[in-house]
Amino acid sequence: MNNNKLHALFNDKLIWITGASSGIGEQLCYDLSKLGARLILSARRSDELERVKNACAQPDKHLILPLDMLQEADIIAAADKVNSQFGAVDYLFNNAGITQRSLINETETDIYRKVMELNYFAQVTLTRQVLPGMLARGEGHIVTTSSIAGLIGIPYRSAYCSSKHAIIGFMDSLRSEVHDKGLRVTTLCPGFVRTNIIETARREGTAQEKVEDTVIKNGMSVEAAIAQVLDAVANEKEQVVIAEGKEGMGPIIKRFFPSIIYKMVRKMALT
Ligand SMILES: NC(=O)c1ccc[n+]([C@@H]2O[C@H](COP(=O)([O-])OP(=O)(O)OC[C@H]3O[C@@H](n4cnc5c(N)ncnc54)[C@H](OP(=O)(O)O)[C@@H]3O)[C@@H](O)[C@H]2O)c1
């Protein structure tokens, strides 16, 4: 979709982006700001949110709302604030997330709980908080960053893959319930994108120090990823794989030739 059409769609729209302090969420802020959107930027680190806001094309149209999404009460309080101050948002980008790197055999249950808490329960909680306002207005668009790892289970990321599969199921159910009420639900399934995702996971204790991030370093640029994201959202796609080249073929191969994909993932390096 060309830039004029994107501008017409997103200009002055109220858009809440979680995970806005880094990576995919950060680039979303830059591109949506250029398109004239009013943004609410959430993540935990307020200094990083300020940095992103100030680097946006129209910082005066944006506000930061620091939030720890591992705390359910924080999510509810933040949503109450947004709902009472602005009413329903036009778009919610459920993008905050954390990865994990370790063998199942070496992964404690608390890691599974932490990854599931952020990548699944927090998204469910925030979505449920914005839903009544969108339903009352009869419009609104919920966009959630899952992953190709939400479509194909791969080694070394069992907690991450489980959480990203789970959120796809939730969003599929949500879409089926709200489509006829005017709401749209888009699930993003990116492949590897060059962001700080491994550093974040190391900081959070869900990836071991020794883990290499070669696949992420060789991933697509965040700018290219967001161009595909905005196109998918503007076209109201239900679910979209965000990838370049043959990486994007994985889900199709799994659907039609599942044994081939199971063989391929068995051979994946543990990085
Ligand atoms: N990069 C990839 O290859 C890739 C591929 C597929 C899907 N994804 C998904 O894309 C999304 C963004 O990831 P990214 O690659 O941009 O990674 P990133 O650079 O590490 O960004 C993660 C974001 O989530 C926020 N976050 C982490 N824990 C949080 C918490 N407890 N409460 C609130 N916010 C929290 C971080 O901010 P603070 O630390 O400031 O809180 C940061 O803004 C994630 O859902 C990820 O799973 C990434």
UniProtKB/TrEMBL annotation:
InterPro entries the UniProt entry points to: KR_dom, NAD(P)-bd_dom_sf, Sc_DH/Rdtase_CS, SDR_fam
Per the database record, which ranges form the Ketoreductase domain? Answer: 13-196
Keywords (alphabetical) are:
Oxidoreductase
Top-rank taxon, per record: Bacteria
Q: Which SUPFAM superfamilies match?
A: NAD(P)-binding Rossmann-fold domains
Name the family: Belongs to the short-chain dehydrogenases/reductases (SDR) family.
- The identity of this protein, by name, is SDR family NAD(P)-dependent oxidoreductase
